[in-house]
Amino acid sequence: MKNFTFLVLAIFGLFSANSITGQNLPEINIADVEAEYMISQDVELTATVVSNGNIDQLCGIGYEFYRNNEPIENIDDFGSVNYSFRIEGSDFYNGEITQGSGMLEIEVAEDNISAFTLGMFDTYCVNRNRPINIVANFNEIGNYKVVISLYSCENDGEEIGTGFTANTDCDGEYHLDLIDEICENPNEIVSKEIEINVVGEITIIDQPQSTSICNGGSTILSVNAVANNGETLYYQWRKNGTAIETATSSTLTVYTVGEYYCSLIAGSASLETEHAIIDIANPIANLDSEITVCPGESTILNPGDFASYLWSDNSTEASLTVSTTGAYGVTVTDEFGCTADASTQVIFAVMPEEFSFKDTTICYGVAHALEGPLNNNYSYLWNTGSTNYSITFEEAGTYSLTVTNEYGCTRTNSANIDFEYTVDAKISDAYEVHSCSNEPNVKLGPISGGSIWLWSNGSTARTNRVTQPGIYSVIATDTITGCIGVDTVEVFIHQIPELDLGGDKAYCADQSLTLSVQEDDCEYIWNTGDTSQSIDIEESGFYSVIVTDDFGCWSKDSLNIEIYPMPRVNLGEDFEMYENQTAILTTEFGNISYVWSLGPEYTEHFVTLSSENLNFGPNVISVTAITVNGCEDSDQVTVTLLEGVNINTENAEMFYVYPNPTSGIIKINGENIEKASLYDSLGRIVFTTESNEFDMSDFANGNYTLIIYTQQNSYSTKIVKQ
User: Fold this and answer.
1) Domain with CATH 2.60.40.10 in the chain
2) In this predicted model, what pLDDT tens digit does every residue of 552-602 receive, in sequence order?
3) Contact in structure between 162 and 177 (CB atoms under 8 Å)
4) In what order do the strands lie in the sheet with 290-293?
5) What DSSP designation does 118 have?
6) How far apart are CA 234 and CA 6, in angstroms?
7) How far apart are CA 688 and CA 704, in angstroms?
8) What is the mean pLDDT of residues 375-396?
């Protein structure tokens, strides 16, 4: 019996793929496969093996089961698979497959056999009359697939004492049957799929579909089903789980929203269709009531995504391109046949004001400026990349400006700028010429360029000789091109008095400084206009002095003085507040640190006072503000916290600063404004104004802080210049 047990290895398929070269591939023929089977109906198949001459090939069988293209792990989850075949005489071997995939093994006595020669079941070289009978029974519907693979083995196998004589289709010789416990180094020869379609007693071919209906409209739901058990099929439609009287056919006309499905009954079998959701379609065509178009341009009207469109001009495209003013409308239809209307009025926008530039020829070294029309509602773009309304340049080329107004309409103009050469009016290699009393005659020039010259002392010669100290300048003119050159030199004559103002200085505004000249009995000329030997410094700036003695010899010295501003600390007058109120004490923004008497956790330029950080009765609140340069100032105020509640909104202050970010003009809307100060990112004050509007066009791009001062408080906000 051991030699017959291997037939189960081929029960589900026919082999495909190849490792037996030079021979016809083996086959397995499957008979009696029907188009479909009912649940729990036995699937009876008959398989026969055709070796096609490969009768001595030792083989093993692998199998895989699938349901709806998903691998099956355990056959028991979906039913059972059994097989049988004749051993000898009327004795049959019966087996069962329980796993969804694997290599088949046959237990004979106490041995597990997984390899055999094909001649044991052949119907080609000899008819050994051993067909395989397969019975599968599935308890769930689905499309079942079995893939059987035949593997050739490298081992020789063992004789089992049986054999056969091949017919004349083969070699006509006697062959022994061989088996083995394992298939060594298996190599796939062939594989084949068998499909088994298992259906229920009722099969739904077409399900009712979810859809949308128009207001006042309807739709038809239908189900296409068959009874596989021979019984009459009955229908019962339901809405939201409740049976609909008289709705007992395969179709249902629906007028209202809801969840619909059909219960199918055939004898003792029943089945529900999928649930169809019916809702109301509500298409909305989107067009702005008014659309502004720049003259000479067009706009595209697009109401949204729909199935079809009908515009007021009878066009049917999804969008409409218009370039003329007027009223336009559209009727849209969605995928459910529902319609919606929309309309718009197209108007022309105002163009930016006209402007023009003139082609110009100028001399090198002379800056030239072009300006566009100034309007706060305009934006500007030069071909240089500048976004200011004007530009200054010193290079030849074509300069163009595009002006865009608030409607997006543009106007462009350009100018061609040519440059002539610049006259060389160089007086000296240095900006200063020094001479003492023994050499009072100082030669200025000669000027190499130009054809006429005019000196600041009235001379018209190419070379100018001077005997007095001072600043001398010359204008050299090329009479052919009209281009000029300018140069200046300062002349010093006689001995230079001793003079040392020291290095650059910086200090806080609460300190004082006096600049003094060491040399007595001289003439002192400060750039401030003072003529005394010493001056008191009151503001930051560049300070210089020329000291001239009785002989006309002079010396000059200068330095930069920066007086660091003191922080502005003014907490205002003493005041009272109730326990339900809050108050904000604020100082000037932009200092590096703030030390409040309320405690180290208060580090901002303002504090919020409430019953949480005040005691009932008088509270002395003080603050010390320290600038980035170490300058300090302090103030204090007495705040009396009263028990009880009060409501007082008379002193509320609101401010609106716009536009922000800005490339130029800043406007401040508000009341009780005394002044506003602008600080850069380093906390340095840029300027102070009492106006509610100022221009930042010439400021560097970056972040600034604007402090707004009122009679009682100060408020800060960030400004972005771009």
Assistant:
1) 202-280, 575-642, 655-721
2) 677 888 999 999 888 888 888 888 888 888 777 878 777 899 999 999 999
3) yes
4) 290-293, 339-348, 326-333, 308-311
5) G
6) 49
7) 13
8) 92
